[in-house]
Design goal:
about 190 residues, alpha+beta, Aminopeptidase, 6 helices
Length: about 190
């Protein structure tokens, strides 16, 4: 079921739209790829896992007022879903939000994640009136680090060995950007 006031964000090459129930199929295709799974705790993804994953995001669309937004990252002409991205605030009156993104490995290296993050920053600062937006990534995920740095987020710190999965400890990196930095065009 789609919401009455569905949010759509557009960029030069992307449409960020609310998730639809059948989007799980496209998500499963890319989340099952070994390149995708490399930086996630999951060893594999099943139909049931991904349906539940997408349904949770769809349920956020009914919250009023909303504090969590998850979008399908799609190619506009064909509505082809190539990833997900989102912005989550801890509460509706929060002044900060956490952003996240993932792109089908078949579309890596084309600037789609950067474009999606820029749209999320504009949405967060212009529409949600946030003061600060932050993100984290695994330290070994150099492509994600590049996306965050290219979009103007500043390195805040490293959490040493704070995630354990796939039989080992992983460091995470924290990045953020303030509204005044974004407004000054530092991205």
């Amino acid at each position: 079921m789609m919401t009455v006031n569905a949010i759509r964000l557009t960029t030069d090459r992307l449409l960020l739209r609310e998730l639809w129930p059948n989007d799980w199929q496209a998500v499963l295709v890319y989340q099952a790829k070994p390149e995708y799974l490399r930086y996630y705790a999951w060893e594999q993804r099943s139909k049931h896992d991904v349906q539940k994953f997408v349904q949770e995001f769809i349920s956020w669309q009914d919250e009023r007022p909303r504090s969590k937004f998850q979008f399908a990252t799609a190619l506009p002409g064909e509505q082809k879903l190539i990833g997900l991205c989102g912005l989550r605030m801890p509460s509706v009156d929060a002044y900060e939000g956490e952003l996240g993104y993932e792109i089908d490995p078949g579309y890596w290296g084309r600037g789609f994640a950067t474009e999606a993050v820029r749209a999320l920053l504009a949405f967060g600062f212009n529409e949600q009136k946030l003061h600060r937006i932050w993100a984290w990534c695994l330290s070994e995920n150099s492509a994600s680090v590049r996306v965050l740095e290219k979009t103007g987020l500043q390195f805040e710190g490293r959490l040493r060995e704070n995630k354990f999965f796939k039989g080992r400890w992983w460091d995470t990196l924290i990045y953020s950007i303030l509204e005044r930095e974004w407004a000054a065009g530092l991205t």
